[in-house]
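Following the same procedure, the fold was encoded as tokens, giving this record:
***
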Amino acid sequence: MNSVENSIENSAEKTPHLSIVITVLNEAAALAHHLTALTSLGSQGIEIIVVDGGSVDASVRIAQPLASRVITSLPGRARQMNLGAQYASAPALLFLHADTHLPPDALKLITQTLVQHPWGRFAIRLEGKSRWLPLISAMINLRSRLSGIATGDQALFMRRDVFDTVEGFPEQPLMEDIEITKRLKRLARPACLRAHVISSGRRWDQHGVWRTILLMWRLRYRYWRGVSADELAKAYRHVR
């Protein structure tokens, strides 16, 4: 967590109920729209922390007036999320991808859920060009509900003390979301909310639905067999 190069803090509520950590890498095209939607929740007690992993576009400049705090970091989603959590001041954490949008009642849902559950995730709805995305979304949600394992684009949320108990995200280049949810599952099964976050289906649109599905399942199978995340990341470089 010593990779901070710069931190810019805007005025924010001193005791937010929820800290939202958003990892960014060259997301200028849609970042303003995404952050503007989140800032409308600020009066509800939300702190927005943007952690940029070395963007060469205007991501940092766009984020500065819209986030509670903007941090620049070495690249790596796990490293960026851990760094954002280090600066978070709320008792609850939400880790959000830059292309994932929350439902309007997200704060209420998370607050109510964390009273009885230490961690949870939303259902996902992928949006894009492919007609297969609704089916893919349904399968992701079903798999997560049955397995108790969630992925980062399902907007993982948890109590801060639980995040500290599992020592945050393992700083590996791939499968960091799978690994932290495996650790969290040892403490308790997740709360699987039926409310949907909306996430971009650009990965499937750009690389092909079946090609992407086969790649992801192959990587997960190899990870389950013990192949290192470093080795798997070489095959997944186009996603990173």
Notes: The chain has one domain: 6-206. The chain has ten helices and nine strands. Confidence is low (pLDDT under 50) at residues 1-5.
